[in-house]
Amino acid sequence: MNRIDSCFADLAQRGEKALMPYLTVGYPALDSLPELVQAARNAGADVIELGVPFSDPVADGPVIQQTSHAAIANGMTMTLALKQIAGLPQDDQAPALVVMTYTNLLLNHGYERFAAQAAEAGISAVIVPDMPVEASGELRAALEAHGLYQIFLMTPNLSDERLRTIAEHAKGFIYLVSVLGTTGERDQLADIGPFVARVRRFTDLPLAVGFGIGTPEQARVMWQQAEGVIIGSALARRLADPVEAATQAHHYLAGFKAGGRR
């Protein structure tokens, strides 16, 4: 069973929802990943999204863009990212790992090569925000041959027909974009209830909400309607100092768990 499936099944059995932090691999320092993943795990993370930096991250807001550019300047590459991820603990209690990256990086690396190395590294799924479902067949085939999933995004402005098409190819979970635009914190989030209701008509997969969530209170509202909450820009802003990054990550994420995940 894919780790994503078992993770959400275990959470559902316990009556809990998923805390899903995003970390840019290679930020704030080239070798920050192990400490940050351990800090997130200790704070209660269930799934960790690992961003492999790209020079033109079109889906990301200014904060994540800055972390990507810094990670590239630090020397991070796809090959090194996979090597670092492979060195993370892989015990039964470890969070599921999901890589987020962009089409050009995957094309340059090679779909089959990436899928094989990702599986060996313990990665469960991949998010490619600039790859529409119609163009995903070759990558999905390579991933699924190695037991990995491709995670797809849904946005509130999509037609029912489009939602149905994406749902037909989706596995693991659906990434719900809570607001239109790029990633980044918002003072107020839109009511996603009607959007969630539409999506539920087409899939029984767990739903994870991202884009704009920055406080435990916002997460609690989203957890009432979805199975997971993704925390990205608000966490990244707290990680600029390599010396304090792990401590800051743990303190910030633990506040979400204490804020009420049940």
From TrEMBL:
Q: Does the keyword ATP-binding apply?
A: no
Name the source's superkingdom: Bacteria
* Listed EC numbers: 4.2.1.20
What would be one Gene Ontology cellular-component term for the protein? cytosol
Instruction: Report whether Amino-acid biosynthesis shows up as a keyword of the record.
Output: yes
InterPro entries assigned to the protein according to its UniProt record, in alphabetical order: Aldolase_TIM, RibuloseP-bd_barrel, Trp_synthase_alpha_AS, Trp_synthase_suA
Transmembrane ranges, per UniProt, are none
Keywords carried by this UniProt record: Amino-acid biosynthesis, Aromatic amino acid biosynthesis, Lyase, Tryptophan biosynthesis
Q: Which PROSITE patterns match?
A: TRP_SYNTHASE_ALPHA
Under catalytic activity, the entry for this protein gives: (1S,2R)-1-C-(indol-3-yl)glycerol 3-phosphate + L-serine = D-glyceraldehyde 3-phosphate + L-tryptophan + H2O
Instruction: Give the GO molecular function terms.
Output: tryptophan synthase activity
The pathway that the record names for this protein is: Amino-acid biosynthesis; L-tryptophan biosynthesis; L-tryptophan from chorismate: step 5/5
Q: What is annotated as the active site? A: E49 (proton acceptor), D60 (proton acceptor)
Please give the coiled-coil regions recorded for this protein: none
- Check the record and name the PANTHER family matching this protein: TRYPTOPHAN SYNTHASE ALPHA CHAIN, CHLOROPLASTIC, TRYPTOPHAN SYNTHASE, ALPHA CHAIN
Q: What does this protein do?
A: The alpha subunit is responsible for the aldol cleavage of indoleglycerol phosphate to indole and glyceraldehyde 3-phosphate.
Name the record gives this protein:
Tryptophan synthase alpha chain
Lineage, uppermost ranks: Bacteria, Pseudomonadati, Pseudomonadota, Gammaproteobacteria, Pseudomonadales
Task: From the UniProt record, report the name of the gene that encodes this protein.
Answer: trpA
